[in-house]
Amino acid sequence: GSMIGILGGGQLGRMLSVAAARLGYRCHIYEPGAGAPAGHVAERVTTAGYDNEAALRTFAESVDVITYEFENIPTSALDILETLKPIRPGREALRVSQDRIIEKDFLTGLGLQTAPYAPVNSENDLRAGIATIGTPAILKTCRFGYDGKGQARLDAPDETGAAWAAMAGAPSVLEGFVDFSHEVSVIAARGLDGSVACFDPGENVHREGILRTTTVPARLTPAQRTDAVLLAAKILGALDYVGVMGVELFVTPGGLIVNEIAPRVHNSGHWTQQGCSIDQFEQHIRAIAGWPLGDGERYSDVVMENLIGDDMDKVPALATEPNVAIHLYGKAEVKTGRKMGHINRVKRG
Ligand code: ATP
Ligand code: MG
Ligand code: MG
């Protein structure tokens, strides 16, 4: 049978591997860290660094197509891999989403709205940015941030020193604070044939920069729902994208503002595991393997709740509740702020 190569061995890689297995594929995970969640369910695991050219070549030669579960894959590794096997989604999606400024330039170039933003490479830049954007604002490192890491909020102009220090010299972007009523995301897919399918938008609640819950249906008017889907389709088309993407949006009276895009399956799409006959993981495997996209229509209301750190203590009680599907990632160590699993609370309509 065919082998799918997945860069990254976290929970997203794990759930992609399970979906791939159901479609008859085997998976080869490439993950530098030992004992990774995806390694437990995949056929093959390579624990080597992204600077190990021989390991990268052996990995690529063993698979038919390469995908990934995180966007911060070093360019040098991609340069090697792409000469050997197709990488889906493609390089352009990674180039754009690896850097918050390149991403915002790309989005505004498509005519989409983002937060006002300014590049920051010094405390002077930050002062100048605050002078035009104002406070409150958020300073974020351009690269490698996730779960709200690498961010500092500025509530007043005199906080530039502390905020810039928190970036530890990394190239950063200052974003105006968007006064949103709520946050939603669109999990969108594009097939090899260019067809696009979107899951119903979900409404997201974050705490301390980390996603806590996603609820479907989201509070959106029919016009907002259409906007959300159309803008996601525009992004996918512009990148000639193949696979599933998460598009995070702020809902404001002035329209939908794009927060960020993630070129992969997305935490806010986990509800699809219980809300649709084809979930985001199968949809991604279908897309990258050249299958037709599946039917992602939502057939129930769902609330997805992340199990973070000590939330794991709630699992025995959750296991006794009706209509709760539990998904655990098999991580060896519980840590504060670490995503250990999630549940989907299903309301059948
Ligand atoms: P992820 O884990 O989603 O990749 P991240 O570290 O890239 O997270 P962001 O999505 O940029 O972080 O920000 C996390 C959350 O912080 C957002 O979902 C939103 O709630 C809040 N936030 C970020 N930027 C802004 C902004 N410009 N205005 C208002 N709120 C913001
Ligand atoms: Mg992000
Ligand atoms: Mg985000």
Automatic annotation (TrEMBL):
Gene3D superfamilies: 3.40.50.20, ATP-grasp fold, A domain, ATP-grasp fold, B domain. It catalyses: 5-amino-1-(5-phospho-beta-D-ribosyl)imidazole + hydrogencarbonate + ATP = 5-carboxyamino-1-(5-phospho-D-ribosyl)imidazole + ADP + phosphate + 2 H(+). Pathway: Purine metabolism; IMP biosynthesis via de novo pathway; 5-amino-1-(5-phospho-D-ribosyl)imidazole-4-carboxylate from 5-amino-1-(5-phospho-D-ribosyl)imidazole (N5-CAIR route): step 1/2. The keyword Transmembrane helix does not apply. Keywords: ATP-binding, Ligase, Nucleotide-binding, Purine biosynthesis. GO terms for biological process: 'de novo' IMP biosynthetic process. ATP binds at residues 100, 140, 145-151, 175-178, 183, 206, 259-260. One of its GO terms (molecular function) is phosphoribosylaminoimidazole carboxylase activity. Its EC number is 6.3.4.18. InterPro entries: ATP-grasp, ATP-grasp_carboxylate-amine, ATP_grasp_subdomain_1, PreATP-grasp_dom_sf, PurK, PurK_C, PurT/PurK_preATP-grasp, Rudment_hybrid_motif. Residues 104-289 form the ATP-grasp domain. It comes from the Bacteria. One of its GO terms (cellular component) is cytosol. It is an enzyme of class 6 (ligase). HAMAP family: PurK (MF_01928). Catalyzes the ATP-dependent conversion of 5-aminoimidazole ribonucleotide (AIR) and HCO(3)- to N5-carboxyaminoimidazole ribonucleotide (N5-CAIR). Homodimer. Belongs to the PurK/PurT family. This is N5-carboxyaminoimidazole ribonucleotide synthase.
